[in-house]
Write a structure and sequence with these properties.
It is built from four helices and 13 strands. The longest helix has 12 residues. It folds into two domains: 111 residues, Rieske Iron-sulfur Protein, CATH 2.102.10; 118 residues, GMP Synthetase, Chain A, domain 3 (2-Layer Sandwich), CATH 3.30.300. 12% of the residues lie in helices and 26% in strands. The chain binds FE2/S2 (inorganic) cluster. FE2/S2 (inorganic) cluster (FES) binds next to loops.
């Protein structure tokens, strides 16, 4: 692929990519997903910020591409992460049309400069400048911050361990279980659908605790760890005989289940 003096690299002919459609291109050694939707071209890194999965073969709906691995969605116009489990934007790049070709210039930071898109109308001559970029979406227009586990709201988990066992006490304890990727506890993420206590058949005076928990996506890579942490945490209470964690995917988790504390922590407003 050839580049011009302004740093744009010709990656395809305008007619190479159907509308809607997508293809992988290489720009200065980086692999970039090029999209053609509604007469415009968009370019983002072919990298999901959740766990590095490739994006280009995901389901494309309007201006959203879904990561094939765990389902996070990104706005192809801005690179913004729209749904869990991704919380950071992937890089979007500048695009222009010139002399029948599609040209891409790499940006060095993710989603910080807003989107770049060019109509695929009549192809202009050399030197065509970029069209005004549409406004970035509110969610994920910029990188969202990550927080160390110690910053997660942990509530009164340890205090609950020594108090009387109740559903509320179990929820407080579960605030000590933190998603290792989002650094937010499972209660504030809205992952706990229910807590049920019942007398243990095996240990007199103790309780069997059943926790109905969901995941942010069906194949959440943190799932096994969250289940183990929940069992271990709740199991420390002296009145608990056994802990059962039941994974519930219906209804599916949605971001609106998060508490305001979790939204603040993830930079979602
Ligand atoms: S790697 Fe993309 S959602 Fe997990």
């Amino acid at each position: 692929m050839s580049g011009d003096a302004s740093g744009f690299v010709r990656v395809a002919a305008v007619g190479d990519v159907p509308d809607p459609g997508r293809t992988l291109v290489e720009v200065d050694g980086d692999v970039v997903a090029l999209f053609h939707v509604d007469g415009r071209f968009y370019a983002i890194d072919d990298v999901c910020t959740h766990d590095g999965g490739p994006l280009v073969d995901g389901e494309l709906t309007d201006f959203k591409i879904a990561c094939p691995r765990h389902g996070a969605k990104f706005d192809i116009r801005t690179g913004a992460a729209l749904t869990m489990p991704a919380v950071r934007a992937t890089r979007s790049h500048e695009v222009k049309l010139d002399a029948g070709g599609v040209w891409v210039r790499l940006r060095r930071s993710a989603g910080s400069d807003g989107p770049s898109a060019h109509a695929t109308g009549p192809v202009a001559g050399p030197g065509e400048s970029a069209a005004p970029a549409p406004a970035a979406t509110a969610a994920g227009a910029t990188d969202r911050p990550s927080f160390p586990a110690s910053a997660a709201p942990t509530g009164a988990a340890s205090a609950a361990t020594s108090g009387a066992l109740s559903e509320d006490a179990v929820r407080e304890m579960l605030k000590g279980v933190v998603d290792p990727e989002l650094f937010v506890n499972v209660v504030d993420l809205g992952l706990i659908y229910g807590v049920t206590l019942s007398p243990s058949a095996d240990a007199a005076g103790k309780q069997h605790v059943a926790v109905d928990m969901t995941m942010t996506s069906p194949a959440c890579p943190a799932g096994p760890q969250l289940i183990a942490d929940a069992k271990r945490t709740v199991g420390t209470h002296p009145e608990v005989a056994a802990v059962e964690v039941r994974i519930v995917m219906d209804p599916p988790w949605t971001p609106d289940r998060m508490t305001d504390a979790a939204r603040d922590q993830l930079g979602i407003f």
